[in-house]
User: Which sequence fits this backbone?
């Protein structure tokens, strides 16, 4: 019988985390479950920094970006001592379970706590990177794509006006999901992401050839290359400099950065967050433990937390082929 649970948001914040918190609190209320919200990710758990979350606290937050509980990374949890301390806090607050909204890193942290905690642990996937196995989409990804698109469309206007080459850097530490999706939707001429192989000065020609080909075909015109972060030694500005030198044309870099994490969640993220937040509570009531509440083919599903970071999720190979064979001309 579950009477009291905790919730926290951890890792990179993502639009829709508030919608997930709201769904968790509202669903828990129906089951007469009290909810405690920990502040600043796992840090709030270690420091016992928390607040009671009642339905009135989550009113009108569905449309808000960020997270009302704040998010953070927590170094201490990487130690065994930190995991023990987190489990002890959950026991001392008499929590029957904890719901962690975050990415695969946060789920690894959750599993570390599981070694010392007797209650139930459930994950809800929230990260703009969409790099979590076991769910088609993570909360925040759809909004991040729209935010990136909005910016790239504006860059296209100025790139067209000056007939310039622009490199737009998008987020995604280990995954090209944001870059491939936003690049396709923006009609970018080239897309560079980790899944396409390592790019260095030595194989720069792979980028130069399609640019030179396009120049022959269309003459001087705007050309947008969407680049995932960490794709080139020295970063996207260094890549723009290298291209400028090789082509003898000024290439401009635009680093979109954290703007991709902010803003009001789009409808798809609000719906996904509401569904997964509610499902997480219901499945916890049904006895689920060490599982992530994900969505596959529009169906809410449980997936083992231990497998969420296996990096089996591939970016769409069909769109990769299409981009590489057709769109770059
Ligand atoms: N291997 C691990 N062991 C214990 N805790 C971890 C581990 N990996 C990540 N965490 C915890 O989860 C937090 C968030 O992880 P991170 O990878 O930064 O973000 P995300 O959850 O979005 O992938 C980390 O700051 C840390 O507290
Ligand atoms: O905000 P920080 O600490 O600079 O982290 C930036 C990273 O966080 C993200 O925005 C989200 O990553 P996580 O969800 O895995 O934390 C990445 O795309 C980016 O590389």
Assistant:
């Amino acid at each position: 019988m579950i009477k009291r649970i905790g919730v926290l948001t951890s890792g990179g914040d993502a639009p829709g985390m508030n919608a997930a918190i709201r769904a968790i609190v509202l669903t828990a209320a129906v089951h007469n479950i009290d909810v405690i919200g920990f502040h600043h990710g796992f840090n709030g758990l270690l420091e016992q920094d928390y607040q009671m979350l009642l339905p009135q606290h989550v009113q009108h937050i569905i449309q808000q970006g960020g997270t009302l509980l704040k998010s953070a990374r927590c170094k201490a949890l990487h130690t065994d001592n930190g995991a023990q301390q987190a489990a002890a806090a959950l026991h001392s607050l008499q929590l029957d379970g904890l719901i962690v909204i975050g990415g695969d890193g946060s789920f690894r942290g959750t599993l570390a706590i599981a070694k010392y905690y007797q209650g139930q642990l459930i994950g809800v996937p929230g990260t703009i990177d969409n790099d979590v196995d076991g769910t088609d989409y993570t909360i925040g990804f759809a909004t991040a794509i729209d935010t990136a698109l909005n910016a790239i469309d504006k860059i296209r206007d100025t790139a067209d006006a000056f007939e310039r080459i622009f490199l737009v850097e998008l987020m995604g530490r280990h995954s090209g999901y944001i870059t491939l999706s936003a690049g396709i939707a923006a009609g970018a001429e080239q897309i560079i992401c980790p899944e396409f192989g390592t790019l260095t000065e030595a194989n720069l020609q792979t980028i130069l050839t399609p640019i030179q080909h396009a120049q022959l075909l269309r003459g001087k015109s705007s050309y947008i290359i969407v680049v995932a972060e960490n794709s080139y030694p020295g970063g996207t500005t260094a890549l723009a400099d290298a291209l400028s030198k090789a082509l003898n044309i000024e290439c401009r870099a635009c680093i979109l950065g954290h703007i991709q994490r902010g803003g009001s969640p789009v409808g798809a993220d609000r719906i996904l967050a509401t569904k997964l937040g509610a499902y997480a509570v219901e499945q916890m009531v049904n006895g689920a433990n060490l599982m992530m509440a994900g969505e596959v083919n529009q169906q809410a599903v449980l997936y083992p937390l231990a497998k969420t970071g296996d990096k089996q999720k591939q970016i769409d190979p069909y769109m990769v082929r299409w981009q590489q064979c057709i769109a770059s001309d």
